[in-house]
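Observation: inputs received (chain + zinc ion).
Thought: call the complex predictor directly.
Action: predict_structure
Action Input:
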Amino acid sequence: MANDKPPYRESRGPFGGIVTFTFDEGRMSTYEVAYPIMKQWGYRGLVFVLTDFVGRVWQGIAGSVQLMGWNELKQLEEDGWEVGSHTASHGNLVAMSYAEIEKELVSSKAILEAHGHKITAVSYPGGGVDARVIEIAGRDYHMGRAAISSTTRWDPFCNCQVEDIFQIDSISLSEKVFTEERLAEYLSAVVDTGAWAVFLIHDVVNRVSEGADQLSTANFEKLLGMVRDRGLRVMTMAEVYHEFHWSMGGGSKPLEDAHGYYNRVLRYRLGYIVLLALRFRLLTKLGRKLTVGTRIGRAILSNISR
Ligand SMILES: [Zn+2]
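Observation:
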C-alpha cells in the first residue's frame, strides 16, 4: 500500500488502460470502508445514489442497508469522487411506462443537483435498460452504466471501444466471483487492449456474510494492488468522458454533445476500414506491377545474354 501515483503505462488501445470503480446505492459501507481504503491508494471512485433513500435505510434484495446522507456525499465529492444517479426508487426501469422512466431519471438528477452535485452519469437499477431508457437518459445525462452478470461474461474487450455511452458495460464484483487468477488475466487484457474496465462493487466489508453481494477488504486491496502493478489509470466516469473529447480532437467541447461524439467515433472507425481496404488495393496493384516488371526485366536479360 502506498500513496505514490501509479506509473502510467502507454498501450495501443483507445483508452490506454483505464479502470473505474463504481459503487451503487450510496451505501454507508462505501463511505466508511471503500472510500478510506481507496484514499490510501490515491484512488477515487464513483457513487451512484438512490435519491429516495439518502440518509435512510433501504430494503435491498439481501436485507436492509443504511445509505449515506447528504453530508457524506458532499465529503466524497469534495475529495474528488463523482456522484451519479441510481434513479429515485430503484424500480426496474424496463418494467415502467415512458412517463415513469422519465420521472425516475429527471427527478433524481434534479435532487442531486439541488444539493450541489455535478451529474454526468446514471446507473440503471439491476442493469435494466432498453431503447426508451437510453433515449430519456440521453437527454439528461452524458453517460449510462449498465451491469453485466458477473459470472457469465468477462469480456476483456468490453469497453475497448465504447459502443454506446449509455450502455457502458460493468463487471459486478463480489466475493462469490473474485479469484485472483481470473482478475489478473482480465486486467492484463485491459492493458493489452487499452480498454476501459468498469467495476461495479456493492459492498466492501471486513467480514463477508454468506450469500451477500459483498467483497472483503482484503480482496478489495488485492484488486487495487493488481490495478496499480499493471500501471492502469483509475478514473471516474466524468473524467473519462472529458478526456474522450480531448483525445478525439474535440477540444473543450460542451458536454451536451454526447451523441455527436459517438457518431464521430463511428466515422473514425469507418475511415479506418476504408483506409485498410485502400491499402490492400494499392499493395495488390503494386504487387502486380512488380511481377510484370520482373517478367520484362527477365526477358531483357535473357535477350542480352543470348
Ligand atoms: Zn442498485
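Thought: report the result.
Final Answer: The first helix runs from residue 28 to 40. The domain at 18-253 is CATH 3.20.20.370 (TIM Barrel).
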